[in-house]
Design goal:
By secondary structure, the protein is mainly α. 63% of the residues lie in helices and 0% in strands. The chain has one domain.
Length: 293
Amino acid sequence: MGFVSSQSPTPARQLWQLAEPYHALTYFAPEAHQAYEDAGLRGFWRGYFAGRAAPLGPVGPGAVTATFYGFHPAFVARALPSIWSVVTPEEAVRARLRGIDGAARRIFVDRSDDPGFAEAVELLRTALEGCSSAGRALFAANLDLGWPTEPHVALWHAATLVREHRGDGHVAALAVGGLDPCEAHVTQVAASGSTRDTIQPYRGWADDDWDAAVERLRARGWLDDAGGLTRDGAAGRARIEDDTDRLAGEVTDRLDHDALDRLLDVLEPIAGRIIERGVMPYPNPIGVPRPRT
């Protein structure tokens, strides 16, 4: 959902970069994978689609392809709607929280009583519950869920709201910018300097799909012959990132300067622990860069 800018990150991007590692436990922590397996969801992608789509209810592949944006429709259809014959959305939500509980207890075993978790939750809840959900389907669906009582699990819920709020805005920015899902990945790779194998296989796009997107972007003047961004491509991608930050700024704008600084200070060591333990890889299929504060 972004790449490292040469400019100082906005408060919204700082928050995303610090909150995303905690949210990403649901993708990378073995406890999260096991929780989905225990619920009967065999294989990573069944757990992924069940856990992330569950707040929307028993939706089919069309709604998930639209709201998740980056996946090939056939890739989504391998999991949906069949996963709802294995678990209900409510069971999938419970499984994802069990996985987070186990992962957080292991990673932060020496910080189980750290008041920073509860403080971060309080600050984020104040900001997030005041945000508009209009046009933000994934954010709205997660916002409708109850807040967990345990601070370390509630923080995961808050981090998820941050990322889905930003993600919904990013999808809008991509659509306005005229990039279809595969083109969005191609330009992200070109902008970040990563390689296509960090994202293409994880979103279901075949080589022919990827190559066709490259050709469309070259015809549009966004990519050069070597696959790098042209001046127009870099400017277009920058507009999308700026729009994403602007739309995500609703969250950070609801906190005054001191509260925002305190939130970032509290989140930094939490994200740092996850990164130090190697739970959150860089580069990663999510597209989140290392935190820059």
